[in-house]
């Protein structure tokens, strides 16, 4: 699954010092990829270095950004820094020749960058937003002074410098600086010193801070991108999958960690026989395949020739957000990170809305977390394209009562606004580290539509909200935000929020 450009950050302006003085598998059965004729833009903000090889030259020269060890017949292995010639562009896999060894084969397009461009520099991150820059720099492995240069979100054709800093009261933070351009093509952050190139600018601030929050140390660690899925490997043979570990069960069956063709770790969702028709299942899969965003779990392939049917997606190492928040690692997360999780989910949902879809089952159990703490929206089993601005559920359908908007429960009609309601309940799950919403009500998570109206909890009064969960009134229905808000007014940043801080 793949994602939309998030809203440009405008809450805190960047600092300026201007006032200072055709890949193929041997075993797969190839059928047409549902997105092969799509004109969708690649909206993955984490695919930092995807390029077009055919701009002006019949054969483009590229530089390898990462090591790649071929895993299929026909792959071309290479090392970081190798120079390659692109022979033919074919989707996400390109045919190339290594200019050092003379060998030819297929390479993943997101592992290379066009020669003699900024993308070949370790410190340049193309297409990364301000918020994603902060996520990268605050990730483990980076330290004070770690930095990156990225495209400016506010001024097209300009750049920004992002630097990891440390504040005794706020902890680790990221500072942003505008890199301004001169009419003659030069660059500067402070007008008292200018540079002919970005490389010269970086080298200067690596020697001395000269007004920055920190002297530049090392470039931000760049995670090796996920290899593209095999071209046209949509319907794959069941024998190519080895189910390694059962991860859980869902509406359609079980979820497994599996290995594809002995080399690629994936997640496999099985469908219980008789749950729905193959045609309906493929409808779901085709919807998932067309939704490409870095905050949505990506669908790779399906197995539908016989039951149980498999749906193969990218593997998310830390499992569901609901389970992760209850682990020791999740319990230690501070409020800013929980807010960041919520922002990531909002990015994915904004993309779904932009594509005129609804999710209908948005909750923490259907958000998956990666090894690098990236949240992605999963389980589109109830998602359907909207017709006439709403989707009316079929009679007898089941859905999560505690996350469903009252108008959807009463009338069985769902809109984008229904997902907004569910997102609000998800926020409650996140801020309370996975607590069940409306405790004591509706112990069963899913109910037939016909039974739902009688299960809607009454809306609380303002007084009830303010007095709920006090020591004198423990275990009441609603979470009382007042103690937390009072604490936030004293310490708005770096609050060591954990379950024992909650009322």
From TrEMBL:
SH3 domain segment(s): 57-117
List of residues binding ATP: 269
Domain Protein kinase: 241-503
Regions annotated as coiled coil: none
Reactions that this protein is recorded to catalyse: L-tyrosyl-[protein] + ATP = O-phospho-L-tyrosyl-[protein] + ADP + H(+)
Keyword Amino-acid biosynthesis: no
UniProt EC number: 2.7.10.2
Principal localisation: membrane
Entry keyword set: ATP-binding, Cell membrane, Kinase, Lipoprotein, Membrane, Myristate, Nucleotide-binding, Phosphoprotein, SH2 domain, SH3 domain, Transferase, Tyrosine-protein kinase, Ubl conjugation
Subcellular location as annotated: Cell membrane
Keyword Iron: no
The name this protein goes by in its record: Tyrosine-protein kinase
């Amino acid at each position: 699954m793949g994602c939309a450009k998030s809203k440009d950050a405008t809450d805190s302006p960047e600092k300026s010092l201007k006032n200072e003085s055709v890949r193929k598998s041997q075993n797969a059965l190839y059928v047409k990829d549902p997105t092969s004729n799509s004109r969708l833009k690649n909206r993955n903000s984490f695919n930092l270095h995807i390029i077009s090889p055919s701009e002006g030259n019949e054969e483009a020269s590229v530089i390898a950004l990462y090591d790649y060890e071929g895993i299929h017949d026909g792959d071309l292995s290479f090392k970081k820094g190798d120079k390659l010639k692109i022979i033919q562009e074919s989707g996400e896999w390109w045919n190339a020749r290594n200019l050092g060894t003379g060998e030819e084969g297929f390479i993943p397009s997101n592992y290379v960058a066009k020669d003699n461009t900024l993308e070949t520099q370790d410190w340049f991150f193309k297409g990364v937003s301000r918020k994603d820059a902060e996520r990268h720099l605050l990730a483990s492995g980076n330290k004070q002074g770690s930095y990156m240069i990225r495209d400016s979100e506010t001024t097209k054709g300009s750049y920004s410098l992002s630097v990891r800093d440390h504040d005794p009261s706020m902890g680790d933070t990221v500072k942003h600086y505008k890199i301004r351009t001169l009419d003659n093509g030069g660059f500067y952050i402070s007008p008292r010193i200018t540079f002919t190139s970005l490389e010269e600018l970086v080298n200067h601030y690596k020697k001395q801070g000269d007004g920055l929050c920190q002297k530049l140390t090392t470039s931000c660690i760049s995670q090796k991108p996920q290899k593209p899925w095999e071209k046209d490997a949509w319907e794959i043979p069941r024998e190519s999958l080895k189910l390694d570990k059962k991860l859980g069960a869902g509406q359609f069956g079980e979820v497994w960690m599996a290995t594809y063709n002995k080399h690629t770790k994936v997640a496999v969702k099985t469908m219980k026989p008789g749950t729905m028709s193959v045609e309906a299942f493929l409808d779901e899969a085709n919807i998932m395949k067309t939704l490409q965003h870095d905050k949505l779990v990506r669908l790779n392939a399906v197995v539908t020739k016989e039951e149980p049917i498999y749906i193969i997606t990218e593997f998310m190492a830390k499992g569901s957000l609901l389970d992760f928040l209850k682990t020791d690692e999740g319990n230690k997360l501070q409020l800013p990170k929980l807010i960041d999780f919520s922002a990531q989910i909002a990015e994915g949902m904004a993309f779904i809305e932009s594509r005129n879809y609804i999710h209908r089952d948005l909750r923490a159990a259907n958000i998956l977390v990666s090894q690098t703490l990236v949240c992605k929206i999963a389980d589109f089993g109830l998602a359907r394209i909207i017709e006439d601005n709403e989707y009316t559920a079929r009679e007898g359908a089941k859905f999560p009562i505690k996350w469903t908007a009252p108008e959807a429960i009463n009338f069985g009609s769902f809109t984008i606004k229904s997902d907004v309601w569910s997102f609000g309940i998800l926020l409650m799950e996140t801020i309370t580290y996975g607590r069940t919403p409306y405790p004591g009500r509706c112990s069963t998570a899913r109910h037939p539509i016909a039974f739902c109206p009688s299960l809607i909890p009454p809306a609380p009064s303002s007084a009830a909200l303010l007095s709920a969960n006090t020591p004198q009134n423990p275990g009441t229905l609603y979470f009382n935000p007042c103690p937390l808000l009072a604490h936030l007014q004293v310490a708005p940043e770096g609050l060591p929020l954990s379950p024992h801080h909650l009322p």
